[in-house]
Amino acid sequence: SGDVGYDELIHGSPTGLSKDFTRFLDCLGWPIQVETHSGYLGQLGKDICETTPYYADRNTEVIFHVPYLMRPPGPDVPLIRDHQLITHFRSVISTDQVAVVWMEERERMSNLLPLIDQGVIVYILIHPLGGDSAGGLFWIRIMIPNTHTNAGMARLTANPLMIGPLADGMLVSRHALGNLVRNTAISADKACRQVMDSYTEPSATRARYIQDVLQTHLPDEPETVSEFYRTMFTT
Asked: Where does this protein have coiled-coil stretches (predicted)?
């Protein structure tokens, strides 16, 4: 929420999580049990997280780092472990390039963002309008801070339509919020990688690996990939 402090991020508001926020988490993906999940975990482990939203389709696999859910299994988190939880939280999000930030109070945005790792490139900010209403609207901000000054970030800033389907300043209904935010976060992460000078298209990476296999397993390199497969799988 917009209240400032790592204790607020880890333990939540003293008044509890809003219904809109819990509905939003449910719409981001389906909850998985970290201990038994066999898919992508994004540096999460059962010692610091019991459950978290997860989504996958044939092209994408994504897991969401929710500070409030980063706690050991059990009903309570002892205050003595706050420092350890914060350390785990910062370690887990250290490679995240996109942050989805829920703001109950828009005025506190400037105080909340510095708590998030400075490696974040794109912020997707969500502010509920009109209180905790089932049919409410949500104001969206998409921010790319100027702390990143390399050429790739300049290209991303100059071409904000690389990120979507949400755009800065949009109003979104509760029913569409989870799906649109998830797709925008996936799009933003892909855009962050594409503008990097070191980025290589997956097809080029795959072709390089195939070429490595060719050179490793055959003394005489075949003329075509189809010839290679025929040689490898025929008896």
From this structure: none
